[in-house]
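Task: fold both queries, return tokens.
Query 1:
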Amino acid sequence: MAAPKKSRGASGGQGKPGRSLALILIAMVALVGGMFLVDQPTPRLGIDLAGGTSITLEAKSEPGQESAINKTNMDTAVQIMERRVNGLGVSEAEVQTQGKSNIIVNIPKGTNSAQAREQVGTTAKLYFRPVLTVAQGMPTPEPSASSSGKPSSSTSPSASASEGATATDKDKGKSSTTPSATATTQGRAVTGALKADSTPSPGASDKPKADTSPSTSASAPSAAEQAAATKLQKQFAELDCSSKELRSKAARGVKPTDSTVACSSDGAEKYILGPSEVSGTEVDSAKANFDQQRGMWIVQMEFTGKGSKQFQKITSKLSQLQQPQNQFAIALDGEVVSAPSVRTTLSGSAEISGSFTQQSAEDLANVLSYGALPLSFSEQSVTTVTAALGGEQLRAGLIAGAIGLALVVIYLVIYYRGLSFIALLSLLTSGILTYTLMSLLGPAIGFALNLPAVCGAIVAIGITADSFIVYFERIRDEIREGRTLRPAVERAWPRARRTILVSDFVSFLAAAVLFVVTVGKVQGFAFTLGLTTLLDVVVVFFFTKPLMTLMARTKFFSSGHPWSGLDPKRLGAKPPLRRSRRVTAPTDPKEA
């Protein structure tokens, strides 16, 4: 009596198959509802299907550092570019190397492609440098000694500017003869964990100061130093900041340990800057926030332990000097983003504040957060990719998929007859789940459907159909052994379940390995293959098996109708084997 009881217990989970069917039906309704709730009724398309922008970048090495263009630095640049683009919310952006010195960036249509194009090749080399001299951004006929010593009160916001003073307030009291340089930092300032004193020192902005670095010693400069200073003054006098191309050339090839000339990011001012005191690599994190009190966007930076000490040291020096030597420039890729005055020692953290928009603040925080590129890059070409070719390939792929699906359906109908009804409903369920999940994964994780992903979905048709075939054949084996349909369905399930799980595990493992070791579009194929493999397990367990249990209770299937696909005669079923008592042969010759 124990065996029948165990058999009922084993199949007790399938005693109410309607629950499983109701569960998967609810899941399908929820997914479809969510698809329309997020206003994403179709999957997002990749660049090969929707079109987009393809950017070719060429690596440029600094003079004397040609060996810097190597595989390690190129791979690092690709990783940083990917993080930057993903940080902007661009889906399915493709970043990969081409040859030894080129990087190709493909950005799909309908995303922040213009913004990504601006940032993807930005080197993001950040240095905090002391300001030695400030002047207007146009070239001057010849440098004069007084240019570095002229009052620069109007060239930079003081520490009080960082406390929320408007441009109008900062301009009050300026001499009409002083060149207007109120945009020296575009109204930006930097404050630290320790707030600067907002009260300017008397006459601090009216005293001329010699053009010397805070670290300049009292000893007389050598002939080489004088020649370098003269050359720097000449570069400063000739520097033209009127265009982006000219500004980008200003600090090209300059080492962090050397003094240099630079332009402000808007070209309004030009600077002579001392050697770097703090590197951008010492910025631990950066994020854009809206300051409610001042009503402005700011970029907050947190320094590492080493960077905090360096920042404290340089601000301690600068706070004892007068303008413009009490300013330090935040130089990003050779352009001065901000050059605030320092009136007290700052440490720990800092913020860049001023004329930021939300977009510009987020852009700056993005490049600072994800690090500096190890190489400089120049934009070689920008190509607009149309979706025409991809559309033709997609149509060809869909036709091939439709032909394959039709052949599968024909095979199922001819060979399995009534069982094909269950298989087709299972395929339909799998298709609905796959489509809705692909649509929802677009806004959720940035998934975009490309041609390889479509191929992965087509391959999944065979994987799903294979699971049905395994189960149907196990049921037929049980019927051939002489069992009726309902016991055959339950006894076949454990054996079929093991085979299906092993098969799907192998497929999922292959997809996972392919996703990890490949890049670009091939990952789309691997992701789709892995997703549909998981859905195959869900469909077989929660739809195909419960539906087969219900169908086994109908007269059409249980009676072995010729068109049910489970006709015992057609399957060559044998009558059940019955045990008979064994008759022992008599050992006595007389009895024989």
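Query 1 returned. Query 2:
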Amino acid sequence: MTSLITTELVILDADQGTESSAVIRALAAAIAEQGRANSADGLAAAAIAREEKTPTGVPGGIAIPHARTEAVTEPSLAMARLNPPVDFGAKDGPADLVFMIAAPEGAGKDHLKLLSTLARSLVKKDFVASLRAAATAQEIVDLVETALGMRETPEEQTTTTEADHPRRVIAVTACPTGIAHTYMAADALAQAGSEMGIDVVTETQGSSGTTPIDQSVIDAADAVVFAVDVDVRDKARFAGKPYVQAPVKAGIDDPQGLVRKALAEADAPNGHRLTTAHAADDSADAQSGSRESVGAHLKRVLLTGVSYMIPFVAAGGLLMALGFLLGGFDIPDYAEDIVLGNSLWNLPTEYGDLALGPVGAYLGAVAFQIGNLSMSFLVAALAGYIAYGIADRPGIAPGFTVGAVAVLMGAGFIGGIIGGLLAGYIAHWIGSFAAPRWLRGLMPVVIIPLVASLVSSGLMFMVLGGPISALTTGLDSWLSSMTGTAAVVLGLILGAMMAVDLGGPVNKVAYSFAVAGLAAGSVDNPVPWEIMATVMAAGMVPPLAMALATAVRPRIFSQAEKENGKAAWLLGAAFISEGAIPFAASDPLRVIPASVVGAGVTGGMTMAFSVTSQAPHGGVFVFFAIDSFLLFLVSIVVGTIISAVLVLALKILVRRGGASGPDEAKPAEPVSSNADATRV
């Protein structure tokens, strides 16, 4: 390890052009000239391919390209101090300090350990300043070898200890749907930790389930980041830990900032610590321990309810759609009689003309009934988990009960929202009483559920249910009567809402509106299904438009955006609007308006064509649940083309006008033969 870097592998104050590939080739040539690689071109190609997957620029004017390839014969570290700096994809600008790590194919994870150690050293401002001030190549070698622990000095021992025991941050991510933001934020935080030399351990509380972090890992962590829009499950596990809490989108937009804030809380003598009370009651704090505003509190509890409601709707809607596919559109008239009176060994003889025979009729009836029962929990689950978001577990039973009452009274999802808030606040209020010691054990399991259920459900029966039911009936009648221009206008509005913040609160309002009405749809009243199709189609437009734009004019996008564009094809097709977030985050003033226009047009077209969807999610992959699927696709294609053309026009016009944003420092470099490598 003593010869990992030598003076011959150091290039000082050289002009290597304006492209990162040229810098990588120069460093690869230096390594090959010293006999450490048998092919400079092979090493350069491997490092450039890695660079195209994910740019290696990090904040502070630093880049760390690296590769593990059979072209390398001896582990090597080459360094260039550039004048002028070259763009390696860092958000804060080009890099003037470039370290290239070259490892042989059989080196295992040694080069990753070296990368981690070097990254930790480059976070230190005094080390970076010394590199920029060094007058000779030997000074650079001395500084780097000391930082990497290759010299028997007190400084080396300290550095080695820090490298062996990096600081650790726990990151918990969760969003209302638990589909995209949750995992994107976790990946961004983990990547940020890798770049900073911090061990970031993530826990995603998403729709596919949660694997809790081992308590011993939590106990050993320095701090915790909660990047969440809903309540954290089992938050008491983190009691006593320094922490920061922010919306899940902050974990995508500024992951390094969140990690730094969490460690700053850990280092501060009076930094925020998660108390047992805060862990049990999220309403007591929101952003870094500060008092939560009324608006933020309502948003959080409502999104908590929506996040737990969506699985009921998703499973139920798809099963009902499958029931219609197998049993025909008149399956609701036969389903209950078939499932109760028949079996696989006693197939029905009476069923609709559109059923796929007696087997299709029976299986369709079973799927429809399961889906219908799942959908019947929609309002109760919404109310129950809104109450849970306010009062924790004691609020669940009163919330479910008042939700069931709202259904019985015909108050619909509006009644579920109001009832859930009512049950939650009553349960929270009762729980705030200082009960005698002998009564405390009964409070959460008997007293609070009993009293909160009685009061909230009693108010829903005697006071609120009737007026809310009348309001719901009026709203349903108004929606059912919408035709022509009025329906198109509604589609335009819903479509624009789906694109304005790409999975944020406005997007969730439009989506929740569609999902909440899905259960009310029928062959005789298809408007709720039309609204669902409108929302789904419009939500697919932004990522598809960005994917199309990067394919048509790749040179005006960064390498990272081009890679995101490839992934956006699949994300858009699956109705994951968040696929456009990386583009909107770096260029919101052009991407968001273009997305809103295209999504609005798509929404208006789907309503005009009376396209229906009985599935709440899935995009083109739930084609069997979408009526007039061809018109559904036409609407999406038109909106996608409009948004793509607009975003390209805005980018090109602004560039020609000489006003480029911070994300447009340079055109993307030419794509090499390895440019089809995709991020795993």
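Both queries returned. Flag for query 2: Residues 9 and 30 are 6 Å apart (CA to CA).
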